[in-house]
Design goal:
heterodimer, A: 218 residues, mainly alpha, 2 domains, 10 helices, 0% strand, B: 205 residues, alpha+beta, Immunoglobulin-like, 4-stranded antiparallel beta sheet, 3-stranded antiparallel beta sheet, 34% helix, Ig-like_fold (chain B), Glyco_hydro_13_N (chain B)
Chain lengths: 218, 205
């Protein structure tokens, strides 16, 4: 091949490689741009600290976007740097524990919901048992309802037992959401959270004959 | 349908470009000589580079040869820029929708993931301004203003990806309130209780 021919091929090859690099580079760069954008509202030092925690989470396979969103939430609520970092660290720990308790097949939404339940006081063991009773179905609604009940001052043991029982008897998501709504309504009318939960749970289903309900009542 | 005049115009323009000029044998001979010189390795007596090769040739040819590496570099740079622009465009068209709700940059782009339109409602007849804020709009306090209905309720319809979402309302710019009709989220460490909504992904009834 002549020298001019070789140079022509070299130019063509370089152009093709440059085009390919340009096409392939943006997705990774864009993902980075999205994540950092969530930290723009923070001062650089806080943003870097949050980024480090998020990177650690990502390397461990723990959903990291909730951490960035927690930081963005703190910024919007004008929280101090210390509160933002404490909230991010707490959520990271909860996400990590939820991921272990719910199993490797859990979706990011389930893990986030599980983290919410853990942060409200639910034990990792309850999360693992919920997965046991619903191995294939989504745990999103049960976890959200569980966290809600505890947040409304239903004792953790009562709320956990109620959701485990409901899952054991095959209650559907719509049933759980209806249960939550009725318990909330009863609490607002002055019924104690524990009594409201046990009462409404009986209306959900008695389960197999002889099966005890949470709290020992029947 | 193409007009007859347009076809005639195209034919004449194409014809003028395709016209072959008369061949000057002497000019043809000079061209072939030059091509033979350029193809011969080391013909110029210079190793590498092209500038010294121009010794003995006229100044116009020297300038043309000296620009060749620069031309190649510019071509590579232009291709990289074009490829990057193409890549960004492609990625935005095929991009991830759920994060569309989180980034104003992607929000306007079609998505391949399912998105549901969720209507948020807050009864606040005495409020003058209400926004809804949550993980679906990056907790931006001003991203999603709500519209007031005649009955005093405030509403906003937002595209939200399936999954669990946390949100709150901001009344009159500085009062954060949770949704009284929705499940509550645990304390978030910022002293303000949020609400939770589950979009799609539920077990069938």
């Amino acid at each position: 091949m002549s020298e001019r021919g070789r140079m022509s091929w070299a130019i063509v090859t370089a152009v093709a490689l440059a085009c390919a690099a340009g096409v392939l580079a943006p997705p990774a760069a864009r993902a980075q741009a999205i994540d950092r954008h969530l930290l723009d509202r923070l001062d650089p030092a806080t943003g870097d600290e949050v980024w480090k925690i998020a990177e650690t989470a990502r390397q461990q396979g723990v959903p990291y976007e909730p951490l960035l969103l927690t930081a963005a939430e703190g910024a919007s609520k004008h929280a101090s740097r210390e509160r933002i970092l404490a909230a991010v660290r707490e959520r990271y720990a909860a996400l990590s524990t939820a991921k272990d308790a719910l199993g490797p097949e859990s979706t990011p939404s389930e893990i986030a919901a599980g983290a919410g339940a853990l942060m409200s006081g639910v034990s990792p063991d309850t999360l693992a048992k919920l997965r046991q009773w619903r191995p294939k179905g989504s745990l999103l609604v049960p976890l959200v309802v569980l966290a809600d009940l505890v947040t409304r001052h239903v004792p953790v043991e009562t709320a956990s037992s109620a959701l485990l029982h409901a899952s054991r008897i095959g209650a559907k998501d719509a049933d759980l959401l209806r249960l939550r709504s009725r318990i909330e309504s009863d609490i607002q009318k002055g019924v104690s959270p524990a009594a409201a939960t046990l009462s409404r749970l009986q209306g959900l289903g008695a389960g197999p004959p002889g099966a005890p309900l949470p709290g020992g009542s029947r | 349908m193409e007009h007859e005049d347009d076809r005639e115009l195209r034919r004449r323009v194409a014809g003028s470009y395709a016209r072959v000029g008369p061949v000057d044998d002497e000019a043809k001979g000079r061209l072939m000589d030059r091509l033979r010189r350029e193809d011969a390795p080391g013909a110029s007596g210079v190793s590498g580079g092209t500038a010294a090769r121009d010794a003995g040739s006229n100044s116009g040819e020297r300038g043309l040869l000296a620009w060749r590496p620069l031309t190649a570099g510019l071509a590579v740079a232009a291709s990289l820029a074009l490829g990057t622009a193409l890549g960004w465009t492609l990625h935005s068209r095929l991009g991830s929708a759920p994060k569309a709700a989180l980034s104003s940059e992607i929000a306007e782009v079609p998505s391949t993931r399912e998105v549901r339109l969720v209507q948020f409602v807050l009864a606040a007849p005495k409020a003058s301004h209400v926004t809804v804020v949550g993980d679906f709009n990056e907790w931006d306090p001003i991203a999603t203003p709500m519209a007031r209905r005649v009955d005093g309720a405030w509403t906003a319809a937002i595209p939200v990806s399936p999954g669990r979402h946390v949100y709150a309302f901001i009344v009159d710019g500085d009062r954060w309130v949770s949704d009284p009709a929705a499940p509550m989220a645990p304390e978030d460490g910022f002293g303000i209780r949020n609400s939770v909504i589950v979009v799609g992904g539920q077990e069938p009834t």
